[in-house]
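User: Sequence in, structure out. Go.
Assistant: Echoing your sequence, followed by the structure tokens.
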Amino acid sequence: MSEGYAWIITDKAMDLLHSMDSSVLIESIQGALGFKSYIPPLSKLHNFTIRWRRKMRMENPNMEMMELNVFGIWAYDAIWALARAVEKVADKISQTKEQSAALNMTDLANIGASQSGSIILNELLQIKFRGLSGEFQFMYGKLISRAFEIVNVLGKRERRVGFWTLTDGITKEMNPYVNEKYLRSSSTNTGLETIIWLGGSTTTPKGWLMRMNGKKLRIGVPVNQGFKELIKVQRDPQTNATTAIGFCIDVFIAAIDGLLSTESYEFIPFEDSNGEPAGNYNNLIYQVYLQNYDVVMGDTTITANRSLYVDFTMPYTDLGVGTIARVDNKNMWIFLKPLDSNLWLTSAVFFLLTGFVVWVIEHPVNEEFQGSAAQQMEMIFWFSFSTLVFTHREKLLNNLSRFTVIVWVFIVLLLAASYTATLSSMLTV
């Protein structure tokens, strides 16, 4: 945080800046640039702010008065949007049947979907009106931010240096007349006001890569036989030159291209004279602390101990870490839920159909499938359901019946495996 550097703060942090500890935070980011969600100065917002302050002062006389931030304004508009959506679909909601029993929110397996909830949600996503924050409208399920303020942190306040709009990009000033459809900025005022950078300088920083004095950026890369898709070191047998490829390298090159930097760099394999790894990942990362490398690139894990010596970039791959926990389900009929009623009925019909088909084929030639009518009916039922646990002991003489049973046993195997997997997933979350 010194002269020659530039810091840009995103709107998520900048919108919350005044709610944080100003004595520590604001003093440490002097000269930084930031984006703030732009709320047009509408008369209805001014009137609401006056009423809100009066109400807060009456209800909390001893409390320090806080400014109404953009999240409070959005929350107010969101409540109005929900109320408008409910009013529009009130007739449809009254026609739906809601469950009378209260939902047990700890019983995740049995939480149903509200019929009226989907109706309200569909209407809410289509709602559009003019609220305290201006045009309130969702796009792809998210609130549209049509403009941002670009602010420069100076002293205990933020100095506005320009705007960014969806239609005109970066401009110095915003047209005071806000169109119903979109925010329109003045096309004659392009660029930004003068920015006071870190250290109180008005000179735009050139970037740290430009201050390498012509030296190549030394990038250490691991030599391993692990995930070659992430990073892999190749050696040319003729020239003995090494090159690094993989997803990590692609991300780095894309970042360099995005910076429009012409600075040169070289990949240095972390290996000994025999071409073997010169140590583990801890040893490789420690080389940055020893200033043998400027950067280390690869599938390196961020740990607390390593963070004591080096700084890591933000992760750009999914860790894929999860927690499996048992669901406290007291429903005695849960063993029936892995298969729906139609599949249970279809399975039962095919059990009987398979037994009947085998009986028709084997009855003329097989004594085990003969006897009285009652014995033959028992044989059909017994043979069908014994295949569920593969305990059928009747010897089949006809090849056609054998083929039928083989196909059916294979289907039973798939059905049993699917049932077991589904029941297991229902008992864990």
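User: And one key feature?
Assistant: The longest helix spans residues 399-426.
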